[in-house]
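Human: I'm a chemist; would you kindly supply sequence and C-alpha cells for a protein?

Assistant:
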Amino acid sequence: MANASAPAQPPLLAGTGLPSFEEITPEQVDAAIPALLRDLHEELESLECRLEQRLGAADGNGPEPQPVIGWEELMDPLRHLEERLRWSWGVVSHLHGVCNSPALREAYQNQQGAVVAFGSRAGQSRPIYRALEQLERQHLDGTQRRILASELRHMRLRGVGLEGSEQEAFNAATAELAQLASDFGNHVLDATNKWSLKLTSEEELAGLPDSLRALLAQAARDAGDDGWRMGLDMPRVVPFLKYSRRRDLREAVYRAQVSRASGGDLDNRPLIERILSLRLEQARRLGYANWAEVSLASKMAESVAEVEQLLDDLRAAAYPVAQRELEELRACAARHGAPEAADLKPWDVAHWAEVLRKESFELDTEALRPWFPLEQVLQGLFGLCQRLFDIRIQATEPGEAPTWHPDVRYFRVHDGASGDLLAAFYLDPYSRPGSKRGGAWMDECLGRSRTPAGEPVLPVAYLICNQSPPVGDTPSLMTFEEVETLFHEFGHGLQHMLTTVDRPRAAGISNVEWDAVELPSQFMENWCYERTTLMGMARHWQSGEPLPEAEYQKLLAARTFMGGTATLRQVHFALTDLRLHSRWTPECGQTPEQLRREVARTTTVLEPIPEDAFLCSFSHIFAGGYSAGYYSYKWAEVLSADAFSAFEEVGLDDEEQVVATGRRFRDTVLSLGGSRSPAEVFEAFRGRPPSPEALIRHSGLTAV
C-alpha cells in the first residue's frame, strides 16, 4: 500500500514565487506563522553554533581569532532566514493593508508580537555580530562594504550591545511599539469608516461635480441606502472641500476629518504619548539623546541641526508667499460677496483656492477628469518609461497571476533592446474605504536576487493607490493630482524593478537612505507637466480628442499656484515630527499637541482650530516608517528637482539628448540602488553634487 502523502504546505509558507493571495486565510496565519518561527529559531541557533565554532572560544580570553568566515558562508544563510520571514510575513502585512477584515486583523495582531520578538532575537545575536565584525577585516568590494556597514549599524540599533535586564526592557519596548503602531493605524481606519454624512437634497449638493455626485450615490447604494453618502476617504473629502458651496457642510466634513481617532475607544492621544515615550527610552538605552538621533544614524542628513536648517530655510521662503496667498483668497471671497471673507477658516481654503484658480487661469481641474481615464494614463506612463528607460510594459490576461481583489492587475516589464523579462508589478488603483488603508505606496513582493543554484529571481512590486473608482459604465476618470500620485509611486517601483544589483541587501530600494528614497518618485512627477508625456496621454475618454492646448498651458501656469501654502504645509508636518522626536519628553510640561501648536505659530498662516487633532491620524510617523524622517520628502525633493533639471538643461524638445539622459538616469539612480551612497549615485548621474536651485524654481519661491 502506498504511503500516505505528506500534508500540503500552506500557501503562506511557500517562501518563493508569487503568493497565492486568495488561498491565504486568517486561520492559516494563526497556524503557519508560529510553525515558521519555530523553524527559523532552529535555523538561527544552528547558524550561531557553527559561527561560534569557527570564531573560536566564546570567553574572549584567548588571542583574537583570525578572519576565517567568508562572505557567502555568513551572508547566504542570514539572507535565507530573513527572506523566509519577509516573504511570509510580508504577505500577511500586505493583505492587512489592502484587504483588512476583523478576522485578519485579529490574526495579524495575534502573531505580530512573536514576529517582532524573532527580529529582536536575530538582531541581537552576538555570534552573528562578531562574525560581521570579522568580515570588516577582509577584502570586500564597495557594495559589500556598504551592506556590511548597514548590517552592523542595524544590529547596534536593534540592541546587540545591551545586556541582561536592559536588553530585556529594550525588547519588550520594541514589541510594544510594534503593537502600538498597529493599533494606531487600525484606529485611523476605523474612525475613517465610522463617520458618514447622509445628503438628501440637491441643495446639499450645490457646487459638487457630476463625478463626485456619482461617487456619493454609489457609496449610498453600497450601504443599502438612497440619496448620497459622504465619507472621510480622500476621493470624497478632497473634492467635497474644493467644490461644495455649502459652507456649513464643508465645516462638518473638515471638523470630522481633522478630529479622526481623537475620542472614545479610538482615541490615539494616549498611544501617541506612549509611542514617543518608548522611543525616547529606546534611544537613551542605545546611547543617543533622543529618537531623532537614532533615526538620522541611517540617513543622508548628518544631524538634527542640519535638517532644522533646511526646514527653516524653506519656511522663511514659503511663509510670506503663503501669507500673500491667504490674502488673495480673502479678496476672492470678498469679490463673490461671501460672508466668510473677513474670517476665512481652514474649511474655506480649498474651496476659495479652487475658485481663484479658475479665475486666475480659467482652469477647472474637475472638468479635466474626462481627459485622464486610467487606461490612457497608464499608456502614457508606460510610453514615457519606454522613451526614457528603454523598457516595455505589458499587461497580463486575468488569471495569469494570483491577485487579492478583482480590481488588481499584473504587468510584466521587458528590456526594450533585448526583450528579456526584467521584472513585474501589481497595480491596485482604487479606493476601498472599508478594507484598504488610505494613501498610496509601493512595496516589495519579490526582490532581485539569485537562488542557491545561481538562477535569477526577478523583482516584483506592489503599487497601491486610492484613486476614484469607476462608477457604473464610466471608467476611473482621474484628477490631475491622482495622475501625479500614480507617477510618483511608479517612480518607487522603477527603482525596485530596474535594479541591476544581485545582492538583495543593496538591490532596488534596499539600503537606500530613507531621505533619498523619494528621489525617483518625485522625479517622475515632473513628467506629468512635460508636453510630450502629458499631451500623449490626455485624451477624452469618449471622443478621443486630445487635451486642448489652452488647457495644457493653464496647467503649466497653475503649477506653482498656492506653492507657498503647499511648501509651508510640508514644513509644518516635518518640523512637528522632528521636534516631537528631538525635544518632547514626558517631563517637558507640554502635550505633543501643544508642541505641535507651538510649531504651528511659525509654520501656518491659519491657526489650527481647537478640535484639530491631526497628530491622531499622522500615520506616517506613528504607524509607518517616517518617525523623525518626514523631512525626507523635502530633502529628496532637492535631489529630484535637480535631477529633472538635467533634462531641462539639454532641452526637453531635443529627443536625442532626452533619451541619452534618460538612459543615464536608468544606469545610475534606477540601477545602482543601495550599492553606493546616494550622494555618489547622484553625482554619477548629474556630474556634480545636488543644488536646491531647481526646487526653488519649481516651487515658485523666490529665495531660500
